Amino acid sequence: MAARLCSNGTFAELLCRIRAEYLEMPGLRLTAPQALCLFGLDAETGDAVLAALVDAKFLSQTANGMFAIAGNTPRSDHRSRTGAMIRRAAGNSS
Prior knowledge:
The protein starts with a strand and ends with a helix. Helix 2 (32-39) packs across helix 3 (43-55). It has helices at residues 11-24, 32-39, 43-55, 75-91; strands at residues 5-6, 9-10, 59-61, 67-69. It is mainly alpha-helical.
């Protein structure tokens, strides 16, 4: 996935910011429209960020469409997987 510049910064910065929000509030569960509103993202960028965090197994999507921290992965594993994903996204921004 190619990183792109957004009004809120680079794609990698968005990943870091959204990941930090979820870590700060571990019980946070948001629908895609709620996440777009909370994080101030357009639909295309929001969908890409949520998909990247799900692909990294940091977030999972519940049966009713809510995005929440993936339940079966230890927090330290979240850091390493999300860190690798952010490095890949940052490498694609040139």
